[in-house]
Amino acid sequence: MTVYFTSDTHFGHGGARGRFRRPFESTAEMDAAMEANWNATVGPGDEVWHLGDFALHMKPDAMAALLGRLNGTKHLIAGNNDGPETLALPGWASVGHYAELTLDGIDLVMCHYAFRTWNGMHRKALNLHGHSHGQLKPQPRQIDVGVDVWNFRPVTLSELTVPRLRRKAVPVSGSP
């Protein structure tokens, strides 16, 4: 089993294309690309931590169907755009506003929002967050896991911790 992280998919949210400069011609194209990228990356036996803002402007049955088509065991850390219908979807293995996890010997503090300080930060714990769509200058050991930063797909901890240059993501449908 591999553990993945993502956030700010904003499935169904046409405004995300313009506001976050997503390179898609339509909301349907954006949603299809993110679903294909997710399923090309995540296997059925994997685990995904979604750090908020799963979908907007979708009916609960459409959200439930979409969540059911996405591979993996899925956990939601609620974001500012996740309403009661999103939180109540039957496809979440867990729902919360904050979580701590130790993975591969690394302590992770997860929330939709970036923290100024967090538990264990002086002991090298990482703060994984979303919300900022790659627009926030991070502190050391603070990582935006949002799809706008990571080619519109979930990513592993090893991918998140490799030093890299900041760059604008481009959609890569069908490949991790």
Automatic annotation (TrEMBL):
It comes from Azospirillum melinis. This is Metallophosphoesterase. Pfam families: Metallophos_2. Residues 1-134 form the Calcineurin-like phosphoesterase domain. Belongs to the metallophosphoesterase superfamily. YfcE family. Coiled coil: none annotated. Gene3D superfamilies: 3.60.21.10.
